[in-house]
What does this fold into?
Amino acid sequence: MTKYVALLRGINVGSNNRIPMADLRELLSGLGYTDVKTLLQSGNAVFAAPGQSPEKIARAVEAGITERFGLKISTLVRSAEELRAVVEKNPMEVRDPKKFLVLFLDEVPAKELLDAIDPEAFPPEEMIAGDRVIYVYHPDGMQKAKLVPHLGKRLAMPTTGRNWNTVTKLLDMVAD
It folds into this structure.
């Protein structure tokens, strides 16, 4: 069995897209995944599954959420090895883990698209693109961040962000 992390986009933010974590664990177990655990209330789940592609798992989770809750929720899935690589290949200093965001991407964006985004236009925020991730430091906090919303509009693909504390906690969970 391979360990995976599912990152659901935009659930339990305000009063929209409410999914209790107990119900999410039950849904994932019903899809045949084992050792299901969740972290926080914002759509982070860790589980084991027989060697399937993360993309196939993501589509199954999305379909299950639509069927059970009537919600269309983008889901990104990474294997434990992929998540470990995100942490190990981080090219930036983590000065404040609460203000350091990993933006997970559904696919590798076109080079031209990334080249057209000028992080210098969003001081004091910083970004460096990795493999299906973008590392972003927003020292003034997420509420005042300008770069992340800009990236979301420009990338035109499913994305979801997690701060460094959450990313490393998820890595600890899949390593157990």
Notes: The chain has two domains: 2-82, 83-175. Strands lie at 2-8, 34-39, 44-49, 75-79, 100-105, 126-129, 133-137, 159-163. The CA atoms of residues 32 and 42 lie 22 Å apart. The helical segments are 21-30, 54-69, 80-88, 111-115, 147-155, 164-175.
